Amino acid sequence: MTDGGTATALVRRGTGGKRTRTLILLLHGNGADEATFFPLGDVFPADATVAALRAPIPSEAGYRWYAHHDVGLPIAASLHAGMAYVEAWLAANRGDANVVRLIGFSGGAVMAGALALHGPQRYGAIAMLHGTLPFDAGLPLEPDRLARCEVFYGYGEADDVMPAGLVERSCAYLRDESGANAVIRSYRAGHTIPLAETRDLVRWY
Question: Can you tell me the distance from the alpha carbon of 75 to that of 59, in angstroms, rounded to the nearest whole number?
Fold first, then answer.
């Protein structure tokens, strides 16, 4: 484990000497922890460094990134505090990585989307898995906010956790307004990552 201040993460160091040094930051779902999401890193190339960061707020049997009004609707102040926490960990731990890719699941996907909206130029790409964009949380959502950003958005057609209206709104913004180079995929799945989605994620990477 590594400790960046009070933040705990699991890290797999990249191998090789490529000119482009990539850090993949995995953001777990609410009520989980870094250990539950870290195995996803095994599907990515060995030359990339993979880190799974623990969220800051103890919750249920794990941790969460922010407090919320309801699922998919973060309390703005809490979301911004969570964003500052992630950004502080990156500032202390990104090392010589010149590309950072964010991959989040559920609440971690909301956090990844929030970070991208806050500073789209800071991230090489983001993947949001079974989450939504953080609407009505004090973040800019004007047209072309994510211009030239690489985005993967995957959702489950039978997801009974994320509100369908927020999923549809996220798809519409990413597809029609954001300006992102967005790959949007739906799966015959609930609130979980099916094998087909993992394969698509690897191809997108």
Answer: 15
- Please report how many Cα atoms fall inside a 13 Å half-sphere around the Cα of residue 52, on the Cβ side: 17
Instruction: Report how far residue 150's alpha carbon sits from residue 126's, in angstroms, rounded to the nearest whole number.
Output: 6
- Residues facing residue 64 across a β-bridge: 57
Helices (H), 40-192: 76-93, 107-118, 164-172
Splitting the chain (205 residues) into consecutive groups of 10 residues, what average pLDDT does each group show? 65 78 96 96 94 94 93 94 97 92 98 97 96 95 96 97 97 98 98 97 95
- In angstroms, the CA 162 to CA 168 distance is 10
- 0.90 exceeded by pTM: yes
CA-wise closest residue to 4 among 62, 53, 60, 66: 53
CB 156 within 8 A of CB 93: no
* Two structure tokens written together for 115: 């970070």
| Burial letters 94-106, b for 16+ CB under 10 A, else e | beebeebbbbbbb
**DSSP bridge partners of 155:** 186
Query: Please, are residues 141 and 117 in contact by the beta-carbon 8 Å criterion?
Result: yes
Would you state the torsion angle of the CA atoms of residues 189, 186, 141, 32, taken in this order, to the nearest 10 degrees?
Answer: 20
